[in-house]
Batch of 3 targets.
Target 1
Amino acid sequence: FGSRPGGHGGAAPGECAPFAAHGMSALNRAQREKVANFQAVTGAPTKLATEFLKRYSWSLDQAVDTFFTEGHSFPSQRQATVDAKKLDAFFRRYRAADDDVIRSEGIEALCADLGVSTLDPVVLAVSYHCRAECMGVFTREEFAGGMQRLGCDEPQKLRAKLEELRGALADRGQCKEIYAFTFQFALDQGQRCLPVDLCVELWKLLLRGHFALLDAWLSFVEQRVKNAVPKDTWMMLYDLATQVKPDLSDYDMSGAWPVLLDEFVEQVKSTSL
């Protein structure tokens, strides 16, 4: 549930709420994608997401940081009723002895009670619902908010929810939201890019069922990429994995793809000749 490197997911512009509302039709593709990613991380309505991004000249990181700094919160509208006392006991069962947070030891204990490994991708889905900010830590607010969204006030209920969460990971649209969240979630404070070795572990967790060329991509990355991976490359890889044919026949080399993806496609095509 947030323990680095691999215990641990934005949304596609076309897979979110209609963009005709609140003037979304006037935005370009990059702006629409930023609005969708902002909503996936924060849960904010389209209009508010657009206002925050405009305020910060479409800097997604600045807009998201300010959103949380100002204390905004938009829980899901459809929540199961949870018992506040049970939820408090649920949190206290795993919290650290010296602080009102759940740390890595508590996360490991929770995963043991759920019958899953800390490296199971389903923990990313739970962290996504908790809107967790850092790997390896759940604040009381994050944990309580996540369990309220999921309608779980005890470990047994969360365990019963795991198959539904696995279903979300298998769904292309829902997985993209978790995938986009994971980039922000896995960042160290003050950083804007993820170390490539961490990306490799996360790709193995999140893309296995969505990317036919995953093994070829991982081999390519391990040979060619020495630097950290920016968010643009991270997100565009998901589009490559889920929107382009496995034989790459419909990949547009003149499109707005990152250079790294162009190089990968060139290599795959050259080796398949």
Note: The chain has three domains: 29-70, 84-170, 191-272.
Target 2
Amino acid sequence: MADDALAVTLQQKGPIPLDLTLSCAAGDVLALVGPSGSGKSTILRSIAGLYRPEVGRVSVGAATWLDTSRRIDWPPYRRRVGLVFQNYALFPHMTALANVAAALGHLPRQERSRRAGELLELVHLADLHRRRPAELSGGQQQRVAVARALARDPDVLLLDEPFSAVDRVTRQRLYGELRELRRAFPIPILVVTHDFDEAARVANRMCLLDRGRILQTGTPRDVLARPASVQAARLVDLRNVFDARVLSHDGPLTILDWNGRTLQAARSEAHRAGAKVAWAIAGTQVLLSRTDLDQADSQPNRFSATIRDLVHLSESLAVTVVLEGPDAPVLSMTLPAHYARRTGLGPGSVVTVALMPEGIHVMPSEGEGQADLA
């Protein structure tokens, strides 16, 4: 672990149960994602010194901020943490410049205004420093809150649902600005969010939480497309999750029996022939065609199906199909919006569904235990 990395271990039975260990290297953005009550905000508060867990250790580099076994518990003012609250918590009677300057008490008074101005310029608010929070948009208030968090020259930056109060267009712009901050301030950054797409846009690491435990840690792409367990797959809203049995391994492929259907998946050495497994595939890895209908079900990964539902989104289609067979499994996929118009697809259309082998992720079946987490 790098010398200036953040390391956190927390344990308690309640009121929010916690049993986890995580780390974040300098220059990394770690997104904490999970349902309400999973402990995300409690983790941030424990790091900042605003909450004391029953058992815990928090360190940044060589500095130990919390170690309950050694009775170390630094107060918040000693911990070099920049914290952006969900509601930004700006002083309503103070200007943007004064809000930032209020966090610069460690500097001589004559230097505070200059440094506050530099930080507001960094977050693209140089021309608005005299405005009070009520005169700023939600996105502008968020930038002031970030500038104030950076005013303490923090060793760690913590962002609690920082984009939840702004509109979609502003949110997209703020994503880019957070990536700029990551380059300008190579410190550990933790972001709490409920939005998996948001986590993938702003973070290079993702930690999936449920009931105070870490289900999986990895790159956003791996966590979302290659969940470590059925439970993780459900939490990331991966809808195409099914049971199967391993038939064999053949070169780069693992051959599965899916209720009498033959599936070819990317080779998965962790599961021996005969093992019960679960498998999942993202909707973007499911292809749909109205041609070659007579060849469906005669080749691996190609099946006859009927469209059950088709929902037009802004730039894509959300499609669900029912495969033929006594189990009548339902598959969900995403297609370009123009595809239905060009092909005349609609509910009731008979189609061929093809599953990309490299997109099929094999994992332990529910009740068979979990794979080692990344």
Note: Residues 236-281+360-364 form a domain with the OB fold (Dihydrolipoamide Acetyltransferase, E2P) fold (CATH 2.40.50).
Target 3
Amino acid sequence: MIDVAHVSKAYLSATRESWAIGDVSFTVAKGEFVCIVGPSGCGKSTLLNMIGSFMAPSAGSIEIDRIPVVPGTIPNRLGYIFQKDTVLPWYTVGRNIGLGLKFRGYSDLQIKEKVTRLLALANLSGSEELLPHQLSGGMRQRVALLMTLACEPDVLLLDEPFGALDSNTKMTLHHELLDLWQKLGQTVVMVTHDLDEAVTLADRVIVLSAPPSRVVLDHRVDLPRPRNVFGLRDSDNFGRNVRAIWSVLGREFQAAQKVQEEPSHVA
């Protein structure tokens, strides 16, 4: 479904060339949920932006369904959810969710039926006339997710969508995201700084090294589905998966910290 092959990314300035991503390769199967973790600056969000066509790699290639991703041309049936929600403050919840459908030429009746169905899936029935300022942070993020799901993407890219939320709200949204994913079956690639979140949600967790990054671990999470996100973290298997990933991820955090502490020799 998604094939990332020997992708790298360099940033150029007047004085130096800085490689954020060194040589990264991995594949994601259709319907799989994959999380990407790594130290700050290793290019997690950059990698997601390249998969979404928002940024060109310096080298390597990316394909979705065997079709090359062309920078600037968003692949068909791809959805992207950013760190900050993109809900329009002057539109109601219902109009926000139906916005993409309107641009695609759906009738008002078709939009209403689909919005009603999506709101029910996300436990938001009855909120279609509310404005964004009347919603909690968690509800706004659910609306942002439904805005993307309304257009029925086959691939869903998530860039730390729950990072600004409190732990209780985050766990509730984990439950709802997994429920929606299991019903709708998208291929998901999600960037996160939260290792517990990654193990809770993912089929696989990919660990990137300190920059210039490479894949240092591709860990398959051996926790059965469906997952009870509220009780999962108490299990021995959950702790074992977290420790297995942290044994590698922790070393990369230390390596990244050493790089940051080294004095610069650039004039």
Note: The chain has two domains: 2-77+154-261, 86-152.
